[in-house]
Amino acid sequence: MRAVATSSDLALAVSGLRFAYPGHDPVFDGFNLKVRCCSVHCLLGPSGCGKSTLLRLISGLERPAAGVIRFRDRAVFDAGTNIPPERRRVGLVFQDLALFPNMSVRRNVTFGMRSTPRSQRRDAADELLCRVGLADYASRMPHTLSGGQQQRVAIARALASRPDVMLLDEPFSSLDTGLRKDLREELLSLLRLSGVGTLMVTHDDREACEVGDEITWLGLPGADNPKPGTSQKAQSPA
User: Fold this and answer.
1) Which pLDDT does position 18 carry in this prediction?
2) What are the Cα distances from residue 76, in Å, to 29, 71, 121, 125, 148?
3) Are 106 and 125 in contact (CB under 8 A)?
4) What Å distances lie between residue 40 and 130, 131, 219, CA to CA?
5) How large is the average pLDDT for residues 202-208?
6) Hey, how many other C-beta atoms are within 10 angstroms of the C-beta on 63?
7) Burial of 87 by CB count in 10 Å (0-12 exposed, 13-18 middle, 19+ buried)?
């Protein structure tokens, strides 16, 4: 049996989270979640269950009605705290990647280095590009890269901010099946070695079981699954 995680083991802790869009039923009503450092935690569920909304709440792009969100030992949201997104030390990678088309690969990566002295940014970016296998692509423009290479740039840019928590919103869904599996395993391994806690959204049960150290299920109301905002965790098979 796995030992209970202590606060020092946790990259992310969400407790008592409440949120509803105006005029709609609650998306989350007392939701709890824990993501360990150096782990990949998959958020699994059908379209419309609140997976992407949860990432927006954690990153600060949406404001909860109540609850507590902690990154490691620091509250980024509670009754008296609401740290803005740019100060939360969170990395975000969306399905569309959102690379800047008018910037080189290196400049895309250095864009996230607000806390790094300017004189050190070039070398730091080149080190990150080396870690994701793009050491020779620093001067290239995003449109000249393949989908897999663009995904590597997006991960490098997200790591450039030295995040405590990495949020991935179906980042591999647009890739071909063969490339998707190989790239997914390589980049998620890199994230584990980087020490961050990763929360990855997926609607693919098989993907969640293959890559998740833990899995949280979000269900839809009225279906044969938990109500929105409740979670069921399971150790992924070896």
Assistant:
1) 96
2) 19, 7, 26, 27, 32
3) yes
4) 22, 19, 20
5) 88
6) 10
7) exposed
